[in-house]
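Appendix B, Record 12. Input sequence as logged:
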Amino acid sequence: MKAKYLFSHKWKPIGLTLFIIGLTLGTIGVLSSYEPVFLDVRVPDFFGNSSFLNNGSSSETGWPQMRKNNLFDEIALSLLLIGGLLSILAKEKNEDEMIMKLRLESLLWSAIVNGILIFITVWLIYDLDFYFVMITELFFFYLLFILRFNFVLMRQKKLVDEE
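Logged structural output:
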């Protein structure tokens, strides 16, 4: 069976590298509130004064407005998401039906576990802490899949080698 939507296996180490860099930068940013000054830029603020957030009031100076923002967290999260996607969607060197089955099972397992964690989060974490946990949930699914898929793949290879 030909996998239509998977990248070449050569993208997997690149994806893992980007994911680890993004995870490291994100952790540094969250734990230390580190924001390098050279990443302070003016960016368009599409929703700062929108009716969605301000009960129908609109900006008098036009839409969108420009505001100062540090891009450190956007870069870290982008690296996490791109690296995660490349890692998840990269073929194995010898992709066959068994690996596709392991990939699907790992994907479903990750979706179930992540869904349960989100449900628990909704009921146990509130306010700004909830926001930070939801940002973490953006890439936690990728992390669960990467760990689970590589674990079952390693276990499967060990079983084949023993036979």
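Strands lie at 40-45, 65-70.
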